[in-house]
Design brief:
Rossmann fold; about 575 residues; three-stranded mixed β-sheet; four-stranded parallel β-sheet; Hect, E3 ligase catalytic domain fold; alpha/beta
Length: about 575
């Protein structure tokens, strides 16, 4: 269609028509369905003037500071460029000039280019402004420049104030999963209050456990997701990935208004900053291997992930498969050395799996020692159960006191002695404390009889830990590995040999005692003292310090493995 000094919207009847809608902020998008409102009014205008919109572009709440950041507008421009002249739109309906963009000269250049290069016009449904004539183009430009001026005024007044509160540690936006956000502008009416507070909730306590499993138990993401699901918390995989890299959980946050700076917030972190940085290093180490063929490992290479540690450079190993030779091997990504997973005919040293199996052989507990050791364990468990009863009574008393405080506050609120704001502020704190203490009670060990049964099972396992390990499914092999070696299994890639690794206290004791007991045919004075200490319930034997809790935690996990694999 040729340009005409007296061109009107009605003259485009029968022409190809597209539409472009946009809101400039998330608040505008959420308020009364702004995009939907614009689309509805654009279609009404089209119907009234005999126009048919054949293609729609909805930009939702994109930023308009720079044209290159506007994905939808770029899609619109790209579509115009790629479309042949006969199928190209003659007119694009928009809501208002300011909704086309607030970047001033950048957007003026755009709509001028649309007219001059492609003979495509713009028409504002709300204001009637258009680009049909040069005069109309000037008026359209004026509206865009005015919108830009509003942006500048906003930046001069509002932005500095926002920067100020951000630098003081105030978090702008919605707190991530695991936290409840209280403040003057939150959407939940039950959490509205004058001052901002961000509090850890029940989901947060589970997420905290997830971080610990990731950092110290070498759980895979899939295993962590399964665990959270079993506890009643469903987390999508990509959301879990986002959690690992979110500094909010370490008590810090970033904001684009304060570039290249991390700000310390005023909430209780889930992990320390040191732990967060360590986790990022671990994740980066894993991502550095992208592009190299990895194998599943559930059957063939169970000693991963992040379980094997290179003793030469303190780096976690990964496993690979040579597809041509069909050889499995482990590799240190730092020093670039490898070791075969299995012993080969021409190998000078045993493979990793065989060396790990030989290490498990050293952990066997002699049958001759089991009776004495069993007595010691019983004494330890009895002592711990007794102390746990005291802890339970203490926790129960504290819960009752907190509940009384909450009930009194609730009564005062019901009788109008205190405001809703005060009740919600202090009442929520009391409820949070009550839930934390209740969860602590649930995690305490219970019946002595159950522990005795599991202890018997453990003694049977200790006769041949290697055989028990080989009988397990992949998941439980991973769990058992981390029970045995809580800080990972150290292996020198240079010398192709196992090195000393921190051993679980229970297996460390059984191994140490068994060696001492079996290496001497006649009892020495040291051995007599050892047995005496055992009977008297010593807390330090063979230079190994431990607590009753160490035993119970190990027995608890072993019980879960036994239930899952039905080994005994």
């Amino acid at each position: 269609m040729k340009r005409n000094r007296h061109l009107t919207i009605s003259d485009f009847k029968g022409s190809i028509v597209w539409s472009y809608t946009r809101v400039s902020s998330k608040e505008q998008f959420l308020k009364n369905g702004s995009i939907e409102t614009q689309v509805k009014r654009l279609k009404t205008c089209a119907n009234e003037n005999g126009l048919n919109i054949t293609r729609e572009f909805d930009a939702e709440y994109e930023s308009s500071k720079r044209v290159n950041t506007q994905k939808t507008l770029n899609e619109l421009l790209g579509a115009i460029k790629k479309t042949s002249k006969s199928k190209r739109p003659q007119i694009i309906l928009i809501w208002s000039p300011s909704r086309f963009g607030r970047a001033g000269s950048e957007h003026i250049e755009l709509f001028v280019s649309l007219r001059r290069k492609y003979n495509v016009f713009l028409y504002s449904v709300s204001t009637g402004h258009n680009t049909f004539t040069e005069r109309n183009e000037n008026e359209f430009s004026t509206q865009l420049l005015y919108a830009q001026k509003e942006n500048f005024n906003r930046q001069d007044v509002i932005i500095p104030g926002m920067i100020n509160v951000i630098e003081k540690g105030k978090f702008l936006g919605k707190a991530p999963r695991g936290y409840d956000h209280y403040g003057p502008r939150v959407k939940d009416p039950t959490k509205v209050q004058a001052k901002q507070e961000i509090k850890l909730n029940d989901d947060g306590l589970l997420i905290k456990e997830a971080f610990q499993l990731k950092l110290y138990r070498n759980y895979t993401d899939s295993e962590i997701l399964d665990y959270l699901k079993s506890e009643g918390l469903y987390v999508p995989k990509q959301s879990l990935n986002a959690m690992w890299s979110n500094p909010f959980y370490a008590g810090f946050f970033t904001n684009s208004l304060v570039p290249n700076k991390e700000i310390k917030g005023h909430w209780t972190p889930i992990i320390t900053r040191k732990e967060f940085d360590l986790l990022q290093q671990n994740i980066k180490g894993a991502s550095d291997q992208i592009g190299i063929s990895k194998i599943n490992g559930r059957v063939e290479t169970p000693l991963i992930p992040k379980f094997l540690v290179c003793d030469d450079c303190n780096t976690n190993k990964t496993s690979y498969k040579n597809k041509r030779k069909q050889i499995l091997y482990y590799k240190c990504s730092s020093c670039n050395r490898t070791v075969n997973a299995n012993t080969r005919k021409k190998s000078l040293t045993a493979g990793m799996h065989q060396q790990f199996a030989m290490t498990l052989e050293t952990l066997k507990l002699s049958k001759s020692f089991q009776k004495l050791f069993s007595k010691q364990l019983e004494k330890i468990i009895e002592s711990e159960i007794s102390s746990i009863s005291d802890i339970k009574r203490q926790l129960s008393s504290e819960i009752n006191k907190l509940q009384e405080q909450y009930d009194k506050m609730e009564f005062r609120y019901a009788t109008d002695e205190i405001s809703k704001e005060i009740f919600e502020k202090h009442g929520s704190r009391l409820k949070e404390q009550i839930e934390i203490k209740k969860r602590s009670m649930l995690n305490l060990p219970t019946k002595m009889s159950n522990h005795k049964k599991v202890m018997k099972d453990f003694l049977k396992i200790s006769e041949n830990p290697g055989q028990f390990y080989e009988s397990l499914e992949y998941h439980n092999k991973r769990v058992f590995q981390n029970i045995l070696f809580p800080e990972g299994f150290r292996f020198s890639m240079k010398n192709k040999e196992c090195r000393t690794s921190k051993l679980n206290i229970l297996f460390d004791l059984t191994s140490s005692f068994s060696k001492t007991y079996d290496t001497k045919k006649e009892k020495t004075q040291t051995q007599k003292v050892l047995e005496s200490h055992l009977v008297e319930f010593s807390t330090e034997i063979s230079n190994i310090s431990f607590t009753p809790r160490d035993f119970l935690n190990t027995l608890k996990v072993i019980h879960l493995i036994l239930e899952d694999d039905c080994w005994l």
